[in-house]
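ok trying again, last paste got cut off:
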Amino acid sequence: MNKKFLTLSTTAVATVIALAGCASGSGTGSPNTTASSTASSGTSMPGMDHGSSSATAGSTSSTAAAMNHNAADVTFSQMMIPHHTQAVEMSDMMLKKSGVPTAVTALATKIKAAQGPEIQTMTGWLKAWNEPTTMPSGHSMDGTMSEADMKALSAAQGTEAARLFLKQMIAHHEGAVMMAKTENTAGKNADAVQLSKDIVTAQEAEIQEMQKLLATL
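nice, full thing came through this time. structure:
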């Protein structure tokens, strides 16, 4: 796009110079007047659509920013999406149970509200980067619960469920913090790195909160 713009602009400038030369030779002054009038009025010469060029440049800049990522950003997003998805599933389980302390259900609500939108954000990044939204097989995620763990949480009720949820979610958060810290040091995309920092801050605080809650049950 830039090469095309420069070529057309050079042609337009050459045309103006040629017209000025003709005016000087003929003595009529009309071509020169026309060229001056066109320049002073702000009317664009053919190929000199500055507005569309600026818009295109802005669009290109935004695209370049979105594409500015590396393998660490991709791995972080691909792994954190299912990790967050499981945390939301665990939270949903708690919110459907009866007899669970209010402080624990409030925590489950907060976790679901925070991590749901982050899943959508990271999915959007991967699509913008033309990367798969699911991670390749063979990658393990720190802190994730096994199928047996999830079944145990599903079956538990009341205070027992609250204790199990807190123990599992502490381990789950610790795994997320480890992955986020890796992205913090190895990532390239500014938005992804910032999210990794936000995850560390939020989930380290929630780990402390859950440890205190667990001590009261």
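cool. The chain has two domains: 2-63, 70-216. Confidence is low (pLDDT under 50) at residues 1-62.
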